[in-house]
Design brief:
homodimer, about 350 residues, alpha/beta, four-stranded parallel β-sheet, 13 helices, about 15% strand, DNA-binding
Chain lengths: ~350, ~350
DNA sequence: ATGAAAGCGCTAACAC
DNA sequence: GTGTTAGCGCTTTCAT
C-alpha cells in the first residue's frame, strides 16, 4: 500500500507584483510604479491595482526592492545597553524621526564590549544599511575600516571627537566633569569621592573631575570604582564603604550616573545622614527622578532627546547630499543645581 | 569648451562573491559554499577564498541571500516603549538569545497605539522577518490577518490568552491584581486607592483589584487614573491629590507600576507620612529600586528575563519544527512583600 | 569537489 | 502611461 501524500506543507506562497499585475491586467512594472509613484499611473489602472492589492493582502518584498535599488531603508543602531535609560531615550528620539522618514532600525546591544561591537557591525553591514549609528567615539580599527569601507554615513553619539569616522553628536565628557568639579569647589566642598562605573566615558569623567578638584583644593580625591553598570544598589554600597573608611565633613560624591547618586541618597537617608549637610551628591544624566526625588539631585543634564534628534538630522542631511555637512555636533551639557549639593 | 567630468561619484562598488571567486580562481558558487558550508570545499580552495575575503574586506550581502533563500534571519520586535525598563529588559533577554542563534532584530516602538502597531507590522512584514514578536494580546483584526497571512511564527508577550495569534508568553494580569487585593485585605488594609496609567493591561489590573477588594471589604475603591505613562512625578501628584481628598487610616495604594509607587513613597516622605503606618503602597513590576529603596517596596514581581527567554525559545521551537509547540506560556508572577505594605 | 543555469521579487533604463 | 529588458548578489538544483 503506497503511502499517501504526507508532509504537504502549506507552503505559504507570497503574493508578488506579478500576481497583482495579472489580476489587474497590467504588467509587473506598472504595479511597481503604482506603489512607488502613483502619479505615473493612470487613475483607472491605479484603482484596479489597489483593488488587487486589497483582495490579496499583498505585502511588498522590501528585500527584493533593496537588492534592486541598493537602498535598504535600514539604519543599524548599536548601543551599549537598552535597559539604561540614557541610551534608550536617545534611541527613541532617533528612531522616531528616522521612522518618519521611512527608515527602520536594526538594533544591537554591545554591552560596552568592543568585540561584540565588532561582530555586530559586521553582521549589520551585511544587511546593507543606509547608515550606522554607534555609541561612543572609541572603536576598534577593524570597525573603523569596515565602516569606512561601507561608504555609508555613520554617526557616533554620546561623545565628541575631532576625528569621527564620519560625524558625531555628543558632548565633551571631560568638560562636563570639570564643570562639576568647579561647581563643587565653588560650593565650598573640601573633599571629594568619585563613584564610577566601568565604562570608558565614565572613567574619563572621573579622571577629569579628580584632576580639576585636586588642582583647586590640593586635596586627594577618593575613588570608588565598579566594573559593573551603575545601579542603585551599588550606589548604596559605595556610600557604605565611604562611611566605613571615615566620612569627612564637607564631602561631595561625584557619581558617574544618577543611578549611583540615587543609591547614595537612599543609603544616606537610611543612616540618618543629612544631604547636603553631612554629605553632598552630584549625579550624572538628569533622569526623571533627579528632579522629583527628595532631596532633589544636583546633576549634569544631557538633553538626550536633542541628542537623538540631532543624530537623525545629521544622517538625513547626509542622505540628501547636503554640501558641507557638519561633522561635529556638540549638544553640550548643563550642571543643574538642586538640593543634594 | 566642453565641461570636464564632474560629479564623478566614488560609487562604492561592493565586493561580491563573484569578485572573490575571480581572485581565488573558483566560481561564485564555490565561494558561497565556502562561506556557508566550509566542509563541502577542499581545504586548499577554502584557504584561497578566505585569503581573498580578507584582502578585499568582503561583506556578504544578506539581502541577496535572504531573497534567494526565503530566510531573512530577521525578527521583527514591537514594544510599546523602549524607555520603560519592563519592556526593554525583556527585549534584551530576548534579543540576546536570538542573536546567539544568528537572528537580528528590527525594532519599532508602538507607544501603546494600535494604529502605530498596524503600520509597524505592515512595514516590518515587508522585510520578510522569520518571526514577529508583539507586546500584548490585543491587536487589531488587520494585524491578526496580516500576521496569519504571513505564515510565520508570532509570539505575543507580557500577557496571555487562550486565543493567541500563534503563541504567547506572559502572565494573567487579572490574577496578579487579585493576588494583590487578597494580600491587601489579609494584611488588614481597610481602604484602597488605585493609581493607574493609561495602558490597557494596567486598566485590567485596576478593575480586577477593585472588584476583589470591594468584594472582600465592602468598601469602595478610589481611582486615580492617568492617561500618560507612569512616572515618579505623577506618582507624587497622585498621593497629593489623595491626601487633599482626605486620606483615611489603613489605606493601601495599588499602583500600576513601580514608577508610580516610587513617587508615592517620595511624596509620603516629603510630607512626613510614615509608610506603611500612615499609608501603604503596592507597586507593580519589581524594578531594581523596589528592593533597594527605603522603605523597600512591596510589589508584584514579573521575571522579565525568563519571559524574554521563554519567548525566544518558543520561536526557536517553531523554527526547528518541533511537533506540538506549546501555545500558551504562563510565566506567572509573585507578590513580594517588603516594607511598604 | 566544483560548476552551470535558473531564479528569488523587485527597480532602473530605455523603448514605444 | 505602459511594457520590455536587464540586472541586483545571492541560494538551489542538477550536472559533471
Amino acid at each position: 500500500m503506497p503511502e499517501g501524500p504526507k508532509n504537504t506543507p502549506k507552503m505559504r506562497q507570497h503574493v508578488t507584483m506579478t500576481d497583482i499585475g495579472r489580476l489587474a491586467g497590467v504588467s509587473q512594472v506598472t504595479v511597481s510604479r503604482a506603489l512607488s509613484a502613483p502619479d505615473k499611473v493612470s487613475p483607472e489602472t491605479l484603482e484596479r491595482i489597489k483593488e488587487a492589492v486589497r483582495q490579496t493582502g499583498y505585502v511588498p518584498n522590501a528585500l527584493a526592492g533593496a537588492l534592486a535599488s541598493s537602498k535598504s531603508n535600514l539604519i543599524a543602531a548599536l548601543v551599549p545597553s537598552l535597559t539604561n535609560i540614557v541610551y534608550s531615550s536617545m534611541l527613541t528620539a532617533f528612531s522616531e524621526i528616522m521612522w518618519g522618514h521611512g527608515y527602520q532600525i536594526t538594533l544591537s546591544e554591545t554591552g560596552f564590549d568592543p568585540e561584540r561591537e565588532e561582530k555586530a557591525v559586521a553582521t549589520h553591514l551585511s544587511r546593507r544599511p543606509d547608515a550606522v549609528l554607534l555609541t561612543g567615539v572609541h572603536h576598534s580599527s577593524t570597525v573603523r575600516r569596515m565602516l569606512l569601507n561601507a561608504g555609508i554615513p555613520v554617526v557616533e553619539i554620546w561623545d565628541i571627537t575631532d576625528t569621527p569616522i564620519d560625524c558625531c553628536v555628543g558632548f565633551a565628557h571631560a568638560n562636563a566633569a570639570i564643570a562639576a568639579a568647579e561647581f563643587a569647589v565653588e560650593a565650598g566642598y573640601k573633599h571629594a569621592v568619585t563613584v564610577t562605573a566601568g565604562d570608558e566615558r565614565a572613567l574619563r569623567r572621573r579622571d577629569a573631575f579628580e584632576a580639576r578638584f585636586t588642582a583647586r583644593t590640593q586635596t586627594m580625591v577618593q575613588q570608588m570604582n565598579f566594573t559593573r553598570p551603575a545601579t542603585l544598589g551599588l550606589g548604596r554600597q559605595a556610600l557604605s564603604q565611604v562611611i566605613d573608611a571615615g566620612l569627612q565633613p564637607k564631602t561631595v560624591l561625584f557619581c558617574s550616573s544618577d543611578q549611583f547618586a540615587q543609591g547614595v541618597l537612599v543609603e544616606a537617608s537610611v543612616r540618618g545622614l543629612a544631604v547636603p549637610d553631612d554629605l553632598a551628591v552630584i549625579g550624572f544624566g538628569d533622569q526623571e527622578f533627579a528632579r522629583m526625588t527628595a532631596p532633589s539631585l544636583t546633576t549634569v543634564r544631557i538633553d538626550r532627546q536633542t541628542l537623538g534628534e540631532t543624530a537623525a538630522s545629521a544622517l538625513l542631511d547626509r542622505f540628501s547630499g547636503k554640501p558641507d555637512p557638519v561633522a561635529v555636533h556638540d549638544v553640550g551639557f548643563k550642571l543643574v543645581r538642586r538640593d543634594s549639593a
